Amino acid sequence: MIRLTRQEPGRYDLLFRGAAILIAASVFTIDTFTEIEGAIAVLYSIALLLAAQSVERTGLKFFSALFLCMALISFTFTHAAKADFPTYMRLGVALISLGLTTALLLRNDRARAELLRINAALALSEARYRSIFDRTRVALWERDYSKLRAHLLEMSARGVTDIKSYARQNPDFVNECIGMIDVVASNQAAHELLGTRDDSSLARTGSHFIPMGDDTFASVLQAIVDGDTYFEGNAEIMTESGERKHVLVSISFPTDVEAFDRVVVGMIDITQREEARLALAAAKEELSHATRAATIGALSASLAHELNQPLGAIAVNAQTLTRWLDRDPPDVEAAKRSAERILRDSSRGSDILKSTRLMLSDMPRQPEVVALAKLIDDTLELMKHDLQAENVSVEVVQKRAIPPISVVRLELQQVLINLISNAIQAIAAAEPDRRVVTITLDTVDDMISLIVCDTGDGLDEAARAKLFTPFFTTKSSGMGIGLSISRSTIEAMGGSIEGSNHPDGGAMFEIRLPGEREDA
Ligand code: ADP
User: Fold this and answer.
1) Please, are residues 155 and 279 in contact by the beta-carbon 8 Å criterion?
2) Contact 254/260 with Cβ under 8 angstroms?
3) Is position 342 within any domain?
4) What ligand 1 atom has the least distance to the C-alpha of 454?
5) Based on the structure, what is the number of domains in the chain?
6) Which residues form the Histidine kinase domain (predicted)?
7) What is the CB neighbour count within 10 angstroms for residue 115?
8) Which of 118, 344, 404, 488 is the most exposed place for a label (fewest CB within 10 A)?
């Protein structure tokens, strides 16, 4: 084979070259000095084949040219004067054979060079992949899924295609499947994640890392059966020491079936993120209760006020009723009218109590069709005392007819209470000449817009960026959770809430909510 790179000739190279020269010299001698009439010069091709084992392209061309010259010299020396047609034919055959051998050897050499180049590129790419695999901080495994895939496809052929529910009904199935996966390689980050020392412990305790009840692995099995090329999901894993961790799992399944013996599985540890998310959700839940408690505080004040009136009326009517009965003869008709008034007032009192109990209960509340203007009025009534205490007046501006909306009334009321409380506090802190909260109702692009605007100092740039971030507060006794809860509440209703500054000063919070559809 022709050598690709220039090197000092080795022992075998010299042998090949020597043999080539020997054969060529023999052919030349026989061709030139004997009377043999055969196409002996064809044998130069063999000499060329031998030479090709030890020379490069240029060397090959040199030998080819040399053998050509030798054949021609022999021909000139022996036959030139009396050459006949068969002699020319023999020379032609020899030259064609030499030419073809040269062309084939050169082509072969080019193909081999290309193959070597591809191999070198492959080796480089493999080295690059290895270095990424080993050094990345993402935990990576190469796992042999071929046995598992064959098993799953065989099950699917038997009609078991819903692998997830099959795994749920057969608890041992998942373990059985994990046992079919071999770990081919894993990187340092993978060992750090699982707390293992080497790949043998990974293989030994394969099923140990997947806690019972986690159905992510069943989803992976389903993805294989469905022929998906990619899987991503959150899972819980158990480390070697028994610690539970949350991970983001991603698996690329090859399109080539043969490559299932080296499937790359990646995991990112999201335990801290997950814990923070859960803590935040718990804090929000707790604080949403606190907000409700604050609402109830305001509510109790108004409750006392509202109950006062029917209770007083009941007392007055009871006295009147006694008087009608004390008459001689008793005025039964008048007494009956008083009793009816007592009944009416007591039922009003019980209605007030019922709605308060609803506020206090933890029962899931149902959305209802709410007229916003009425909700605003009711909320202002609730906050009457706070508004009066800070000497803040409220202007409600309704720009056009507002369609009703379908929401959980109490939740939207809590958002309003929060916005109005913030506005009152902002006005109290700023001590402006005008102490007004303006609530504007309007419709914008099929959405209902409710704007709460105050005459406080407004929002500075830093506050605007963080307004809805949980625990952001600029108040010494603030919790910084009201706006964050308000945003999640409004977004759950399919709406949005944004804070900005009014051109005339003061903060402005706009809620946009989808209106109740006419055809709904
Ligand atoms: P808290 O009222 O407990 O601070 P919020 O989430 O309701 O929590 O508000 C977060 C922050 O947003 C407040 O501390 C304040 O800096 C700012 N903010 C909210 N409403 C207004 C307003 N109307 N004017 C000025 N700043 C406001």
Assistant:
1) no
2) yes
3) yes
4) 23
5) 4
6) 302-517
7) 10
8) 118
Is the distance from the beta carbon of residue 469 to the nearest atom of ligand 1 less than 6 Å? no
Same domain, 354 and 372: no
- Backbone phi, psi, residue 510, to 5°: -115, 125
pTM here is: 0.46
Domain match, 504 and 457 both = yes
Q: What is the CATH number of the domain that holds 379?
A: 3.30.565.10
Q: Answer with the one of 358, 384, 417 that is the final residue of a domain.
A: 358
Using only the alpha carbons of the chain, give its radius of gyration: 46
pLDDT category of residue 4 using cuts at 50, 70 and 90: very low
**Same structural domain, 384 and 505:** yes
The DSSP output letter for 161 is -
Which of these, 274, 249, 277, 275, lies nearest to 264 by C-alpha position?
249
Q: Does 231 share its domain with 354?
A: no
pLDDT tens for 372-383 read 999 999 888 877
Structure-token match 């109950």, residue found: 307
* Inside any domain, residue 5: no
What is the DSSP-derived secondary structure letter of residue 206?
G
Q: Does one domain contain both 281 and 347?
A: yes
- Alpha-carbon gap, residue 167 to 124, rounded angstroms: 42
- 307 in the same domain as 254: no
> Which one of 473, 500, 501 would you pick to mutate in the ligand 1 pocket, going by the greatest count of ligand atoms within 8 A of its CB?
473
Q: Are 235 and 247 in contact (CB under 8 A)?
A: yes
The structure tokens listed for 347 are 């039922």
436-444 β-sheet, strand order: 393-398, 436-444, 447-453, 507-514, 496-501
> pLDDT tens-digit profile of 300-334?
655 665 677 678 778 888 999 999 999 888 899 99
Full domain range(s) for residue 436: 368-514
Residues 300 and 410 in one domain: no
Q: How far apart are CA 216 and CA 209, in angstroms?
A: 12
| Distance of CA 478 from the midpoint of ligand 1 (Å) | 8
Residue 57 is which amino acid? R
438 lines ligand 1 (CB under 6 A): no
Closest CA to 61 of 111, 99, 113, 18: 99
